[in-house]
Amino acid sequence: MKIGIMGGTFDPIHIGHLLLGEFAYEDFGLDEIWFLPNGNPPHKDTEETKKALRHRVNMVKLSIADVSYFRLNLYEAEVDHHSYTYQTMQEFNRLYPDDSFYFILGADSLFSIEQWMYFREIFPTCTILAAMRDDKDAEEMRRQMRYLKEKYGARIELLQAPLLEISSTTLRERAARGLSLRYMVPDTVAEYIRENRLYETPVI
Ligand code: ATP
Ligand code: MG
Fold first, then answer.
1. Is 128 in the pocket of ligand 1 (CB under 6 A)?
2. Gyration radius (Cα) of the chain, Å
3. Residue 4: CB partners within 8 Å, gap ≥ 6?
4. CA gap 15, 100 in Å, rounded
């Protein structure tokens, strides 16, 4: 099987994430997309962040409930140690040797990937599907893709998806100001955020 991995903090998940999954599924003929919520970093494993992790996971569940090829993967959320992307991807390759993996990310991640822990180890484990985002134009994206391919032998493809200037940060800010999240997150997620009174206090 060809499996897309959509990793993120998902605090909260929004239509930017979901559309990347949908377009990757269609354009690259993938069989499944696994939504992979990040666990808590070791220095932040407090009661507060554990509760937030439960909410992050619940919102992913609500968002993908009706889509058979979208799955929730709790590997990073549940392992008792913090898992870096390279470790997770190595583990997936070990656990599922017959499958091939496509790691989906946005431009900001493509441009910061060299700051990720042991990022070189990621490239042999998957093909990267990189989507444009915000201020990076197509030319800059192509240049960065070429650079990573030439320097590290990375396999990277451009993922064409609608450009949406939307981020979890701005959604948290909107929620804190009592503004609407309608059409930016699935209705069930907007309702969940309201019911659980998430993001009501501004995060600094
Ligand atoms: P935050 O503002 O908290 O950083 P975020 O919206 O960037 O949240 P993340 O969970 O950090 O969401 O992102 C997970 C992945 O999804 C990253 O690779 C990011 O680049 C990508 N992504 C998120 N939103 C978009 C978007 N609107 N367009 C393209 N890629 C996106
Ligand atoms: Mg982000």
1. no
2. 17
3. 21, 24, 25, 28, 30, 32, 33, 34, 101, 102, 103, 104, 129
4. 25
User: pLDDT tens, 141-178?
Assistant: 999 999 999 999 999 999 999 999 999 999 999 999 99
Q: Within the chain, where are the H helices? A: 15-27, 47-64, 75-78, 85-95, 107-112, 138-152, 168-176, 187-195
Our answer on whether the CB atom of 109 is closer than 6 Å to any ligand 1 atom is: yes
Atom of ligand 1 nearest to the CA of 163: 28
Higher pLDDT pick, 50 / 144: 144
Structure tokens given for 113: 């990937």
List Cβ neighbours of 127 (8 Å cut-off, separation of 6 or more). 100, 101, 102, 103, 155, 156, 157
Question: How far away, in angstroms, is 98 Cα from ligand 2 center?
Answer: 31
pTM for the full model? 0.96
**Alpha-carbon distance 61 to 58, whole Å?**
5
> Ligand 1: does its nearest atom lie under 6 Å from the Cβ of 4?
no
Centre of ligand 2 to C-alpha 126, Å, is 20
202, 169 Cβ separation under 8 angstroms: no
Structure-token match 């897309």, residue found: 4
